[in-house]
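User: I'm putting together notes for a lab meeting next week and I want to include a structural view of one of the chains we've been expressing. I don't have a solved structure, so I'd like a prediction I can at least talk through. The sequence is below, exactly as it appears in our construct file.
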Amino acid sequence: QVPGLANAVRRNEKALKILTANLWVQKGETDVVREDPKRRFYVSDLIKAYNRNIPGGAKGLFSHVLSLGLQDIPSSILQSYAMEDKMPIYLDKDNVEAMGFKT
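Assistant: Thanks for the context. Below is the predicted structure for the 103-residue chain, given as structure tokens.
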């Protein structure tokens, strides 16, 4: 973390603040998903992780979330990432919007 960065972003009320959500979970990042293969990792989980790890949480850091839907990714690419032991992060739009963010 860069000291003061989160607060500087929060203070800027004119900027359009967008979180570009990760597309993939890889080993070492979210191993809880790997321990239970039926468990999916969602964009709302990513935001919860920000709330735990960024001083002051995610509020004010971004107002919009940009996420590519898995239906937009060719199956050959999904298979390629799976071979690299990476798993997709799913957009749970209703939960993200309930957290106060636009999708």
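A couple of points you could mention at the meeting. The longest strand covers residues 86-90. The longest helix spans residues 43-53.

User: Perfect, that's what I needed.
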